[in-house]
Input
Amino acid sequence: MRRRVLAGLVLAGVFAAIAAWAPAQTAPAAATPAGAAKATFAGGCFWCVESDFDKVPGVISTTSGYTGGTLANPSYEQVSSKLTGHAEAVEVVYDPAKVTYEQLLQHYWHNIDPTTKDRQFCDSGSPYRTVIFTHGEAQMRAALASREALAKSKPFKEPIVTEVVAAGPFYAAEDYHQDYYRKNPVRYKFYRTNCGRDARLKQLWGDLAGH
Output
């Protein structure tokens, strides 16, 4: 669906054309500076998740990639086939002195639709499922507690289907996916708007959407 949305914009062209000229190499995973910590979230299109987390004070870097599946070093085309088990995800490196993991969890919830399985907005299939990939026992406890608290206080009726699982290998996506919203602002805005992401977030979360 993401490709069909992009195809409608003359200035953007089709996503397949972007992939054709873009180098096939993948971006290196971001290093974790001393004193920093890492969190990994899947929330549908990683362009959007990356953009949303880059806005958070205390976030040092974000990397779009693939995780949760079985194939090592997958390509975008392989993940899109829905046969690898991988989800589009974003690895967030942050400064715990400026933003806590619990605050990142709250930001994550308010930027996804946790009520849909194997789908986010206009993108469907297992690569677009919502997952919190935890690093260590402390993150696992915090993520489970956050999901439980949300289930009791959520402003919508539908059940929460977001998974919480231990993080495995993370494979950085191809270079042309990194910082896509900065490199291609017109295409990105067209995709995000026509995918209905912000409209659905507002419907679910009201004034909390995007925070």
About this structure: The chain has nine helices and eight strands.
